[in-house]
Specification:
mainly alpha
Length: 362
């Protein structure tokens, strides 16, 4: 029986399907193997990109001895961050543990709800009933929302527990980034070659934009916020402020999401004048006010023209990162999302410009 063109075409399709299935299986298997190390790999790449200009300057000072420069930068970064980051992580764990142990909701009391609550749209009757129950029998009201509270409590414990593992991952990634400094140029060229396959004509620009965004967010947002929270923590510990570590974490989060720590520092300074003697309150205020202004002074210097990524994108990155990856996601989330946002914005602007040019030519 002769082989027809339809049979040959069917054979080509079957062969292509088999190849795609084999490739998909290999890619899936590769993903399963590297999945435990994805966070570590991302951290290492971000640190390498963020610290690479510093590495180049140190290498120039050392007469081009790049391996020695990589070792010195790695050791210097470890010495700078190992103490403060460990203090923040362990302080967060201890603060969450104490909060869950001593925070007794059963001792709370609520006033009776006003009748106007019933007029609230959609939820008025349910809100009035629950509020009324809480004002008379809080334990019974608490029992109704116990499953939701249990989920929140377990999430807090998971976040606190991930702080230790996240800190260890961060230190290991610093060590790995030291080995990536020397071959960084070759890796960048390989990435640009690959990006040209995906986006012909703008591949190099997209890689440069991704690197610039990582440096901008990691140094201008994450770095300054981390420095500000650590300096604030030192001042609060020296002044004997209770729960200094968890307040420092709050300052860090407010700095990353671009709100700023003033909403924490101002009440804290006012409180210090009521709870401390005049000399201590004066010294505490004189220290905390410059710390509170640190981001306003340093961020424009570090970031130059400023961060173009909207604050909402950074906020979503922080919240999504914490929910997905625990305390590590607090730093990774906004960086990754900012890179994606900038690349998408550049791609959309490029597509829009090409469409306009085509319409003009017509």
């Amino acid at each position: 029986m002769p082989v027809t063109d339809a049979d040959r075409q069917m054979g080509v399709y079957v062969e292509l399907l088999i190849r795609l299935a084999a490739l998909g299986l290999l890619l899936y298997w590769t993903f399963i193997l590297v999945r435990p190390f994805i966070t570590l790999m991302i951290w290492s790449a971000i640190l390498t990109i963020a610290l690479y200009p510093t590495f180049e300057r140190v290498a120039a000072w050392l007469g081009g001895r790049r391996r020695l420069a990589a070792g010195l930068v790695t050791i210097l970064v470890l010495l700078i961050v190992i103490g403060p980051v460990t203090w923040l992580a362990l302080g967060l764990v201890d603060s969450v543990r104490l909060l869950l142990v001593h925070f007794d909701l059963a001792q709370f009391s609520f006033p009776a709800p006003p009748e106007s609550v019933k007029a609230w749209p959609l939820i008025g009757d349910q809100a009035y009933r629950f509020w009324d129950l809480a004002s008379t029998n809080f334990k019974a009201a608490l029992a109704e929302i116990a499953p939701q509270l249990k989920l929140i409590g377990s999430k807090l414990l998971n976040i606190a527990a991930s702080a230790g593992a996240g800190t260890l991952t961060f230190f290991v990634s610093i060590f790995i980034s030291g080995f990536l400094f020397c071959p960084a140029d070759s890796i960048a060229r390989a990435l640009k070659t690959f990006s040209r396959k995906l986006a012909s004509g703008r591949g190099d620009e997209f890689i440069d934009l991704a690197g610039a965004t990582i440096r901008s967010v990691s140094r201008g947002v994450i770095g300054i916020s981390l420095l500000q929270s650590l300096l604030a923590g030192v001042g609060m510990v020296a002044a004997g402020i209770p729960a200094a570590s968890i307040i420092s974490v709050i300052v860090l989060i407010l700095g990353i999401i671009q709100i700023g720590p003033s909403i924490v520092f101002i009440p804290l300074i006012i409180w210090s004048w009521t709870a401390m003697d005049t000399t201590t309150a004066l010294l505490f205020s004189a220290y905390m006010i410059p710390v509170g202004l640190l981001d306003n002074i340093m961020r424009p210097i570090v970031m130059g023209r400023g961060l173009k990524t909207p604050t909402l994108v950074i906020l979503i990155g922080v919240l999504g990162g914490i929910i997905s990856h625990g305390i590590t996601g607090l730093f990774l989330g906004p960086i990754v999302l900012a890179v994606v946002w900038e690349l998408l914005s550049a791609w959309i602007d490029d597509s829009y410009g090409m469409n306009e040019k085509a319409q003009i030519q017509k």
